[in-house]
Design brief:
CATH superfamily: Cytochrome c-like domain
Number of domains: 1
Distance between the termini: 55 Å
Order of helices and strands: HHHHHH
Strand content: under 5%
Structural class: mainly alpha
Largest sheet: none
Number of helices: 6
Length: 132
């Protein structure tokens, strides 16, 4: 490959990577979960959480007081490591992310087109937005 073409190809790749970085969500209000994932979380909440909790404990002012402006990984890890109370740590990644999606959805945060993952480094870079 000629040096000039190689250089242009490298620039095109770098520009594409830079653009991907600009589209990275910054808060939980940037559509970090899918509607289907939130629906699964709603069912899981009824199955695993509702016997001890109501969704009101995780919405509105209650949510804002504890979780707003913290990394999304904080709530993810709380769910993953301490819930359900009678079997802490027994939920898998898919269940934990669905429950987190349900909580975000219940706080008026918009869904997106990609499901929430359990990638802790990614979740740590996402700040929890203030609930509606």
């Amino acid at each position: 490959m000629r040096p000039a073409l190689k250089f242009l190809g490298t620039l095109a790749i770098a520009a594409g990577l830079s653009q991907c970085g600009e589209n990275k969500p910054k808060t939980s209000a940037d559509g970090i979960f899918t509607a289907a994932q939130a629906d699964r979380g709603d069912a899981l909440f009824g199955q695993h959480c509702a016997r001890c909790h109501s969704i009101q404990e995780f919405t509105g002012t209650s949510f804002n007081t504890v979780w707003a402006d913290t990394p999304a990984s904080s709530l993810y890890l709380r769910i993953a490591n301490t819930m359900p109370m009678d079997q802490p740590g027994s939920l898998g990644t898919e269940q934990t992310t669905a429950l987190l999606a349900h909580i975000l959805d219940s706080n008026g945060m918009p869904s997106g087109d990609k499901p929430l993952t359990g990638d802790l480094s990614w979740l740590t870079g996402i700040q929890m937005a203030t609930a509606d």
